[in-house]
What we know:
By secondary structure, chain A is an alpha/beta fold. Chain A has helices at 21-30, 59-62, 73-89, 113-122, 130-134, 140-148, 164-177, 194-202, 235-240, 266-280, 298-312, 325-328, 335-349, and strands spanning 6-15, 18-19, 36-37, 50-51, 100-105, 155-158, 183-190, 226-234, 247-256, 289-291, 321-322, 351-352, 375-376, 381-386, 392-399. In chain A, helix 3 crosses helix 6 and helix 10 (266-280) crosses helix 11.
Amino acid sequence: xxxxxxxITGLGVVSSIGIGWQEFWKNLLAGxxxxxxxxxxxxxxxxxxNGGQVKDFSFEQYFSEENIKKYSRASEFALCATRLALEDxxxxxENKNTIIGTCIGTTLGSGQNTEIINxxxxxxxxxxxxxxxxxxxxxxxxxxxxxxxYFNGPSIMFSTACSAGNYAIGYGFDLIKLGKADIMVVGxxxxxxRVAFTGFNQxxxxxxxxxxxxxxxxxxxMVAEGAGIVIxxxxxxxxxxxxxxxxxxxxxxLSCDAGHMTLPSVDGVENCMLKALNNSGVKKxxxxxxxxxxxxxxxxxxxxxxxxxxxxxxxxxxxxxxxIKSMLGHAMGAASALEAVTCALAxxxxxxxxxxxxxxxxxxxxxxxxxxKSRKHTINIALNNSYAFGGNNACLILKKYSx
Amino acid sequence: MxxxxxxxxxxxxxxxxxxxxTFRDAFFQGKTCFKPxxxxxxxxxxxxxxxxxxxxxxxxxxxxxxxxxLDRSTRLVCSAAKLAIDDSKINIxxxxxxxxxxxxxxxxxxxxxxxxxxxxxxxxxPRYVNPSFFPNTVIxxxxxxxxxxxKIKGFNTTISTGCCSGIDAIxxxxxFIRMARADIVFAGAVEELCEDTFLILHTFGCLSGSNxxxxxxxxxxxxRDGIIFSEGSAVIALEEEKHxxxxxxxxxxxxxxxxxxxxxxxxxxxxxxxxxxxxAIRISLKxxxxxxxxIDCIFSSANSSKELDLLETNVIKKVFGEHADKIPVTAxxxxxxxxxxxxGALACASAIEALNYGVIPQTVNxxxxxxxxxxxxVIEGTRKKELKNILILSSDFYGNNSALIISKYA
Lengths: 403, 410
């Protein structure tokens, strides 16, 4: 069972800095910001007005088939990213002897339709569209992917908030290792949510202008949206069909703070990284890059840096640690999936995207955050950190493919 | 792969009974729970009946501190977890907590909290929303509160796959035990009765009595015309076999096989070829290394809808062929109603009792035969039978299908 190796052979992205991994990657390396003023809903009564919305997304551009109807925004993002990732992988999805499954992570996902219904309920002269109500269940996202692509394997929706993408990728990896699927479409998707925007505003956790992870004057996170999908398959079958292998999944670890609903804990985060290292069978000396959870809030960045110091000891300053949330904002359930895509590309191209908006060093966050400019750096093994409300931590480890 | 997930405890909160013993007595007696809904105003809906837990007081299970901000789903699932922890006699300590996890299935568990939080921001303005209710808007909030209350640090997972959530959460937990990602997992599901979820089911048109007829729940019966929505929570203590033996735990059975398979022919609301459920059953049998004839009883997820009851009947016939007539089939939803995400976990909790008592619970309220639904349903009262392997099914509106086999531990 444990001999099965799992490769990443396709990537799909919908983000505030680009759709498709090529544009996403180009903009990540250029340090482009996807933050703009929020148009998804009225923010005039909120304290802040900026976010990482995906503004140039047209579902019809990717699904022009006549019989395809409109879905929740979370589902449309996920469908689009899935199509891009499948095309990128060149996998033959028609072969019915192959078991293909889907694991998607989300925070609110299709449940965002509740917000649309609330507008209807309050503004009573509008009729409620039944389709919008019927798509509220979060798993309508994962099931519509399986339905439209004719998959027959497991379909699991992980509602584990901001680390959900890593949960989904991790379980997809397990299912392949357990022999329960040949190919897994895994990742995360979340729409721009008023509930999240309002909630983080009320916690005073949203930055007014820009997201500045690890900066002394950081003012908070940026609510965002998007989807990230990676295609996992047995390394053996990827090699057989001469697929492009971006990276290999080595393992992952989960932990729970069991402390506070919203504040992260150093112990929980430290445990999670250690579990991921242990599960992957790699030593801490082997980590060449860390994609940080790096939300840009005072509490998160301080906690994460302290945990990194504890895990990596004297060596912590030698490991580049960057946060792409400085560019895209925090895409909730999609965030760690987008970061997994980033890790795979960083490994494939030996290049690290920067943490932008970095101005003033914070002695509490004295890691090497790859400030403002991307960097060439040989990456053999990368660690992808993610944490969430409820203390749900998930860390994933990817490696450059070699025999 | 020698690691096996055994069952060492259960915790149940259901409209027919709270706690393992009360619950068992109730479903062996064939008790039902359907009453006018009091949790919200049903006057604008044609259907007024639901399965509400009317005698639930969280203070019977949980410490008062921090209880106020918890929503109903969270109170239910934390209480079920507490019952499961006590029943299993597992002592959670700083030494073992990192190998203990939580895996909960819920789809609408936070829906009321989400909808109310958003409505408050629209009506009162975003600056007047109480931030202490924001954490309740993440769907993992009920599960995470279990970890927080009982200091469980190994992992915490929430799975939302509609009617399959309960079985999927238990399967996920079993995988984690098999793969040595954990030694103990509290796995289960929860769903609360609230207007926001009721509205969705009403919109689907799947509630019995929608057309002004009497509301009734009678799986496999010719008179069936829809579901009755209920609430509930069940949490099962799953434990690695050797770990359970080492601490002399009482072992109630083990998880022998499971599978989850999608049916892409699904056109919504159980209109599909049945291929997905068929795959789920076949793969779970293979996973358990069992033959068709080894299955002693099937806990169907039949919920009194025209479509699902017929679908499961047809799939059972197709998979089991000549054995199909010889396997007793029962539907505990005849007593419990459709608890949506919690259904699979409650079925598993009942199957554990059936396994240990050698008694198959009855499908109550069965009167008129449907010529198309002609399996050996347990309708004449409970049935005594030596049970070694019970197959539990779940099918979801959107095409998910899950199967779980629990077996007697010898």
